[in-house]
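Justification of computing resources. Each target in the renewal requires a structure prediction run like the one illustrated here; the chain below, 213 residues long, is used simply to show the kind of job we budget for.
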Amino acid sequence: MGRRARRHAPLKAAGTMTLMALFFVAYFALLRSPQFPVTPMPVTALDRWLPFQPAALPLYASLWLYVSLPPAFILERRRLVAYGWAIASLCAAGLLIFLVWPTATPAALVDWDRHPAFAMLKGLDTNGNACPSLHVATAAFSACWLHRLLREMGAGRAVLAGNALWCAAIVYSTLATKQHVLVDVVGGLALSALWLAAAGPRALAQAKLEQAA
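Resulting C-alpha cells:
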C-alpha cells in the first residue's frame, strides 16, 4: 500500500484537491442559486422510522478520506487519469441533474441548536441538491474501485469486508444525519451503478494489459 501511495504522489494529491475544489465551487453555486423550482423529495416509512443519530456525523464526514483512497492506490499513470475522468464525469452528471432538476430534502424535526457539531455542516450544506445523493454515489463508486485495487494487492477477506462496511456506514450516515432521504440514496446508488457499468469493464481490461506489460 505504501509503495502504491508513493507512486505519482504529487499528481495524486494535486489531482484530488483540484477535483474537490472544482466540485465544491459548482455544487455550492447550484445549491445557493437553483435555476428552476425546487422539488421536495418524498419521505418514506424508513425515513420516518430511522431516528436522527448525531453520532453518525464522523461517518458522514469520512467520505472525503474514503474517496481519496482509490486514486492513492493506483500504480499506473494512465489508469490514474482514467479514474480521474470517471469520478469527475460522475460528479458532473450529478451536478447537471441538480441544474435541470433542483431537489431538496424535507426539513427534519430536529432541534439543531442542541447539536452544535452540525452547525458548520448546516451552515454550508443545506437541504438542497438532494437527489441523487452524490455522497452515496461517490462512496459506492469508490468502494467498487477500492475493492478491485485491494484484491490486486492481495488483501484478505477482513480488509475487503472492512471496505464494504465503511461504504455501507457512509450510506447509512446520509440517512442517520437527516441530510438525505431514502429516495436520494437510491438515486445515488443508481447513478454509481450506471457509471460503473459504463467505465468498469474498460478500466479492468486496461489494468490487465498494463499488468501484463
